[in-house]
Amino acid sequence: MDEISDRELAALADLYDRFAHGIDPFSEARDLAENQFYGMLNQLRCRCAPEMNERAFNRGVIARCKRYLAKN
Questions:
Q1: Is 57 left (phi over 0), alpha (psi -120 to 50) or beta?
Q2: For residues 3 and 14, what is the distance between their CA atoms, to the nearest angstrom?
Q3: Most buried of 6, 24, 52, 57 (most Cβ within 10 A)?
């Protein structure tokens, strides 16, 4: 997962923040952010760690997003 660039992590963290902490859980913007987040995660897993379990990869990246958001 170290192959994820700082720019990619920032984009993922922004998307994660928009869907995980959105005020309206049923808004289209929230759904769009979630779909974009998981789409980007899938592309990154295929590029960076295709042998890795999808769930484990996603949890690892989400943890990195949370740390990024806490610092910024």
A1: alpha
A2: 19
A3: 57
Q: What angle do CA 25, 30, 34 make, to 5 degrees?
A: 115
- Start-to-end Cα distance in the chain: 20
Which pLDDT band, with edges at 50, 70 and 90, does 25 fall under? confident
DSSP string, 9-57: HHHHHHHHHHHHS-S-TT-HHHHHHHHHHHHHHHHHHHHH-TTS-HHHH
CA-CA distance, 1 to 7, in Å (whole number)? 14
